């Protein structure tokens, strides 16, 4: 089984904020695959499980439903009864203020890079050895205010396209692994 978890904050208030691009990627995967409904909620995480054609196989989509800074415990609970090796079977999708809007970056592993959701997952699992897809939301003003804001009207189309490209990258990771996904998507600049 492979797992894709998108990070974000629960609730309608945060749905279209910069911080929630991880949730949006997971939601778009579910839409593309024809999954309907919210799935099930277990131990603070929204879960949708599906079997995709090979080579993807069984996939679990996870949205931790606690606030961003507490993403680790719901993710751990979601994986508790699986045989997932987080070093090879997990992709975490998160926003990144150090990447400009319109850029994404895949990594095999790495530090939290100042991202509290990633920091909590690293702390919870005791390792930073898991793949991550960082979706650029740009930087402006105070970081906390910036990520909790929605995209400006002139940014929305580009943000939607970036979420779609991030979703393409997640599907490529499922099909071909992290190295081929990195080669295909790192350095790519999303255009409107």
What does this structure look like?
This protein is of the alpha/beta class and 192 residues long. It has one domain: 3-Layer(aba) Sandwich (Rossmann fold), CATH 3.40.50.1470. The chain is built from 7 helices and 7 strands; from the N terminus they run E-H-E-E-E-H-H-E-E-H-E-H-H-H. It has a 7-stranded mixed β-sheet with strand order 2-3-4-1-5-7-6. Strand 2 and strand 3 form a beta hairpin. Helix 1 packs across helix 6 and helix 6 runs antiparallel to helix 7.
CATH superfamily: Peptidyl-tRNA hydrolase
Tally of individual helices = 7
SSE string, helices as H and strands as E: EHEEEHHEEHEHHH
Total strands:
7
Gross geometry:
globular
The rounded Rg comes to 15 Å
Structural domains: how many:
1
Compute the separation of the termini in Å.
Answer: 34 Å
CATH class designation: Alpha Beta
Largest sheet: 7 strands, mixed
Q: Mean pLDDT score, rounded? A: 89
Helicity, as a percent range: 25-40%
Poorly predicted parts: none
**Any idea of the CATH topology?**
Rossmann fold
State which percent range the strand residues make up.
Answer: 15-25%
Strands across the major sheet, in which order? 2-3-4-1-5-7-6
CATH architecture: 3-Layer(aba) Sandwich
Class per helix and strand makeup: alpha/beta
């Amino acid at each position: 089984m492979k797992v894709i978890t998108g990070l974000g904050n629960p609730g309608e208030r945060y749905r279209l904020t910069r911080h929630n691009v991880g949730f949006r990627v997971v939601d778009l995967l579910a839409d593309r695959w024809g999954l309907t409904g919210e799935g099930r909620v277990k131990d603070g995480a929204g879960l949708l499980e599906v079997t995709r054609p090979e080579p993807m196989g069984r996939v679990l989509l996870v949205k931790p439903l606690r606030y961003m800074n507490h993403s680790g415990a719901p993710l751990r609970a979601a994986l508790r009864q699986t045989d997932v090796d987080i070093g090879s079977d997990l992709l975490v999708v998160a926003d990144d203020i150090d990447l400009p809007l319109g850029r994404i970056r895949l990594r095999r592993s790495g530090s939290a890079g100042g991202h509290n959701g990633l920091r909590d997952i690293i702390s919870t699992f005791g390792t930073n050895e898991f793949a991550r897809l960082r979706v650029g939301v740009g930087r402006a003003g105070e970081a906390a205010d910036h990520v909790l804001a929605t995209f400006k009207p002139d940014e929305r189309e580009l943000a939607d396209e970036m979420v779609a490209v991030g979703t393409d990258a997640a599907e490529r990771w499922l099909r071909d692994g992290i190295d081929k996904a990195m080669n295909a998507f790192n350095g790519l600049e999303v255009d409107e």
